[in-house]
Amino acid sequence: MKNFLRGLLAGLAVGYLTAPRSGKKTREQLSDKLNSYKGDLENARDKMVGLVDEVKSQTGLGTPGGVVGKVESKIDHYKNKAVQAKEEVKDNYNHKVENLADEAKSGIDTAEEKLKV
Asked: How far is residue 66's CA from residue 101's CA, in Å, rounded to a whole number?
């Protein structure tokens, strides 16, 4: 679609530039057309914004109790669960490392005692 529009605009530009009018008149005409298209696009954008706002108000989208609010709530819930799980894993890891360190120290102490004998 982009290539089509580019080709169309290029064709229009070549047509205007090779027309038998003066450059000034051609530029004025191009400027008028572009301003007209700009106004049409702004009107279309305004209509789309209005439709989106209407859909939001009718469906409850964007409100705290609407779909977006529910999705955000679920995301927050699972985010909190992930943070809790991370903390549990971290605590378990630290606990196991401490236990292994204690066992290693105990083994070293036992070996030193046996070597003293």
From this structure: 52
At 62, which helix (H) or strand (E)? none
- Classify 1 as helix, strand or coil: coil
Q: Any residues with CB less than 8 A from the CB of 55 and at least 6 apart, and which?
A: 61
Cα separation of 25 and 2, whole Å?
28
pTM over 0.90: no
Which structure tokens are listed for 35? 């301003």
How far is Cα 100 from Cα 105, in angstroms, rounded to an integer?
Answer: 9
28-51 pLDDT tens trace: 777 888 888 888 888 898 999 888
With beta carbons less than 8 A apart as the criterion, state whether 29 and 16 touch.
yes
| Distance from C-alpha of 39 to C-alpha of 31, rounded to nearest angstrom | 12
Q: Which residues contact 69 (CB under 8 A, 6 or more apart)?
A: 63
- What pLDDT, in 10s, does the model give residues 68-111? 777 888 898 999 999 999 999 999 898 898 988 888 888 888 88
